[in-house]
Amino acid sequence: MYIPDSYLDELIASDIPSGIDLTTHVLGIGAQPGRMEYYTRDAALLCGTEEAARIFGRFGCTVVEALPSGTMLAPGDAFMTVEGPAAGLHMGWKICLNIFEYYCALATKARQMVDAVHAVNPLCEVLSTRKLMPGTKPFDVKALTVGGAFPHRLGLSETVLVFDHHLTFYGGRSASLTCRSLRRRCARRSCSSSRAPKTRCAWWKPASTACSLTRWRLSRLRSWCRSSRPSTRT
């Protein structure tokens, strides 16, 4: 997955708005060469080293070694080593540390969820919603896919997803009739309802390949996965 340079530049600008690390500058140590190593305290699924390397490159630093996203790390494992001037190392240090802390955690959690689902039904998949913190989507999506999950819907413009409040404005029609109508109008778009089946609702057809199971208890989800046909994606 490629994250645009413009997004990385925004991360840099938010942490270094004036383009200078004042502490390093006033100490007069910016030109001194240094070496920095990132390691993990806990077992984790690695995410973000490719973007971190691009960020350090902007500060005149060289990545000596970096493991790729998707590498499973054991406690104490070093996963990235960078060399360069002290000014560049300090400017890139915290930006990249934040990327690793947040998105290794998200990738790790996603992998745990995927492994738990696959243990019950290997052909079930975990899909993420659009419930993301504003401004974090590029790394959120990368971390989820590194963890083995898939984005269900990246934005409002790519698919049709009917919620109960849509039906209220639409005259209270049933989800089944509404989805059939929309599928005819949006023949090349995915059309679905957000209502999750209690067992087998009228609109839940055997040929369906996906449905929304938000706010379900894990025990209920596990039972539903076992009873569903193998190709179901949840």
Task: Walk me through this protein's architecture.
The chain has 234 residues and is an alpha/beta fold. The protein has helices spanning 5-15, 22-27, 49-58, 86-120, 137-146, 164-169, 175-185, 218-227, and strands at 33-39, 44-45, 62-66, 72-73, 78-85, 127-128, 150-151, 160-162, 191-193. The strands form 4 sheets. It has a 3-stranded antiparallel beta sheet, covered by helices on one side. A two-stranded antiparallel ribbon has the order 2-4. It has a two-stranded parallel ribbon with strand order 6-7. Helix 3 runs antiparallel to helix 4 and helix 4 (86-120) crosses helix 5. Residues 196-209 have low confidence and may be disordered.
Concise description?
The chain is of the alpha/beta class.
Topology:
Layout (H helix, E strand, L loop, with lengths): L4 H11 L6 H6 L5 E7 L4 E2 L3 H10 L3 E5 L5 E2 L4 E8 H35 L6 E2 L8 H10 L3 E2 L8 E3 L1 H6 L5 H11 L5 E3 L24 H10 L7
Parallel strand pairs: 6-7, 8-9
Antiparallel strand pairs: 1-5, 2-4, 3-5
- As residue ranges, the low-confidence spans are 196-209
Mean pLDDT: 84
Share of helix, binned:
40-55%
Name the structural class: alpha/beta
| C-alpha termini separation | 23 Å
Q: What percent strand? A: 5-15%
Which oligomeric form is depicted?
Answer: single chain
- For the secondary structure, the number of strands is 9
Number of helices: 8
Order of helices and strands: HHEEHEEEHEHEEHHEH
Shape: elongated
Largest sheet: 3 strands, antiparallel
In which order are the strands of the major sheet placed?
1-5-3
Q: Give me the Rg, rounded.
A: 23 Å
